Amino acid sequence: MNLKGEFSWIQSLRLGGRKAISFTLKCTNLLYDETFNAAILDGSGSLQPLYFTNQSIPARKSLRFDYDTVGWDWCQGDKFVILDNKGKIKAEWVVNMRTYAYGECPTCHGTHRCPQCSGSGRITDRHTHMIETCQSCAGSGQCQTCYLPVRGNSNIGQPMGFDQRTNNAETSKQRRIAAINSRIYELQSKIEKIEWDLRIMKLKDHSYSSHMTYTSILQLKFTYEQQLIKLQSELRQLELM
Q1: What's the mean pLDDT in 36-52?
Q2: Is the full-model pTM beyond 0.70?
Q3: What would the pLDDT profile of 158-198 be if each residue is shown by its tens digit?
Q4: What secondary structure, in 3-state letters, does the chain show?
Q5: Which of 7, 10, 102, 172 has its CA 20 to 30 A from that of 67?
């Protein structure tokens, strides 16, 4: 197995520019693709694993796994694991991003609040008196220098009367979104492979002597594309809820 993994910070487009963790898996082979099975495991055990089967990375290329690409919002302690054919872990990478000690953050000095908006996530324009989203923290109100996503069940900071059923519904929604993103990613990979196979067929046989095989591959591609359209539509509806 010639795979190298690394966690890093990104500005997530789907999270409105908020700071998020990303995992990059690179194939270190010089000539050959690397095919593997993998999973993302929640460090707190509150979310279902996200599985990836028969994934392929071209030689010297990489794949990114994060909220923008597969719908997983990484938190401290989460794992990316490579699995063998029996589902056992062959290799793993654990999120262990730098943690600032209290008062050590050079931006907020331990308050964990964005200094630009004082933790409100909103800024009032002095000239127009319009309330706008704070660009520094993407509306989160959190200091983006020391921000570290941690998954837990604590309700600290929630208003009195908070309905736990709402929290459960949101968790179920996020799980469904993660599952849909995983399936979308898998379908896109399959479609890309089919398109590659079709190009090879054209190069090898311009007369398409194996017409039945070519037609069946086209039909399979069409089926995958229809499934992809339905999933993308469901994903948009969930994200708008």
Answers
A1: 92
A2: no
A3: 333 444 444 556 666 666 777 777 778 777 878 888 888 78
A4: CCEEEEEEEEECCCCCCCEEEEEEEEECCCCCCEEEEEEEECCCCCCCCEEEEEEEECCCCEEEECCCCCCCCCCCCCEEEEECCCCCEEEEEECCCCCCCCCCCCCCCCCCECCCCCCCCEEECCCCCCEEECCCCCCCCECCCCCCCCCCCCCCCCCCCCCHHHHHHHHHHHHHHHHHHHHHHHHHHHHHHHHHHHHHHHHHCCCCCCHHHHHHHHHHHHHHHHHHHHHHHHHHHHHHC
A5: 102
